[in-house]
Design a protein that fits this description.
299 residues; mainly beta; 2 domains; five-stranded antiparallel sheet; four-stranded antiparallel sheet; elongated
Length: 299
């Protein structure tokens, strides 16, 4: 492990690397708070050793247009000596090294909970069973205006559960006992009955992060994939917009952090193979704004 620490220290003085940015940067924004710059490495001389791209996120937070990221080895016990911190200025995409003792307050988006009743109040949905053993599930759709109900079986793999409503659409969650098999599906029981998962829309890989369902603007729900691949926005009319990030990490704690940035935008900070990558999302516009990746040191 000492070898990794030495490698990371040398990396702070490597030169000739530049950060990547997916779109034209906006004008500079004056930061409300400027962190201490003591012992910081010159912006133009920073690069990240390739092995550190496998590190997990220890902490990520933002101040103005700058996003700070601290990394720790993925499997070894965290220590102060093994911690590596860096930051990216999202106004120009430049990375710089930071003292390993840095810390900050992270601001996360508001989590959401799906209601168990439909928005119109005209239908009700329920699911009975859904276990691996005994295997079998029965779904019931009730027209609350007439009191009439219809029932049908529902095919699934190992487990299935009713997660709630978006508008009059039903969200179902399927998962496996082993492996990253958790997926949430959006189906419209009023458009076709009985509900069939294959006819639904896959919303996200619901594994690997404590909060993957977020409250977005305009009454929308945001389903974030635990592997960081994207965010699926769903509004009460069941209009669906998927924003892909171009990133993909193992769905495990410490590989993804979701933050609120200036202007209400969201930031996805990555670890575990994409460590120190940052993606900025326009929540209101439901689109990718910019993606940043640290310059990698030459072999």
């Amino acid at each position: 492990m000492k070898g990794w620490v030495a490698l990371a220290t040398i990396a702070f003085f490597a030169s000739g690397c530049r950060a990547h940015q997916s779109a034209q940067a906006p004008p500079d924004v004056v930061e409300a708070v400027t962190p201490d710059t003591t012992d910081k490495v010159a912006v133009g001389g920073y690069c990240l050793p390739l092995p550190l791209r496998q590190h997990r996120l220890d902490l990520a937070w933002g101040v103005g247009t700058r996003t700070f990221i601290c990394l720790q080895p993925a499997f070894d016990p965290p220590t102060q000596a093994s911690r590596v911190c860096l930051s990216v200025d999202r106004s120009n995409g430049s990375y710089r090294g930071e003292p390993p003792t840095m810390t900050g307050e992270r601001l996360r988006p508001k989590p959401a909970v799906l209601p168990v009743t439909s928005a119109s109040g005209k239908i009700a949905y329920s699911l009975r069973g859904g276990l691996r053993t005994p295997h079998g599930a029965t779904q019931t759709l009730t027209d609350l205006t007439t009191g009439k109900a219809k029932t049908a079986t529902l095919d699934y793999d190992e487990h299935i559960a009713f997660a709630g409503f978006v508008g009059d659409g039903v969200v179902l969650r399927t998962w496996l006992d082993e492996g990253p098999g958790c997926v949430q599906w959006l189906v419209d029981p009023t458009a076709a009955w009985p509900v069939v998962l294959a006819a639904g829309i896959g919303l996200n890989a619901c594994q690997g992060h404590p909060t993957l369902l977020l409250a977005a603007t305009r009454g929308r729900y945001a389903f974030v994939s635990g592997n960081g691949y994207g965010i699926t926005f769903v509004d009460p009319s069941l209009s669906v917009t998927e924003v892909t990030t171009g990133q993909l990490v193992p769905p495990a704690e410490g590989n993804l952090e979701i933050l609120v940035a200036d202007g209400g935008r969201w930031l996805l900070a990555f670890g575990g193979g994409q460590a120190a990558d940052v993606v900025e999302i326009d929540v209101d516009g439901m689109k990718l704004v910019r993606a940043f990746s640290p310059p990698i040191c030459p072999p």
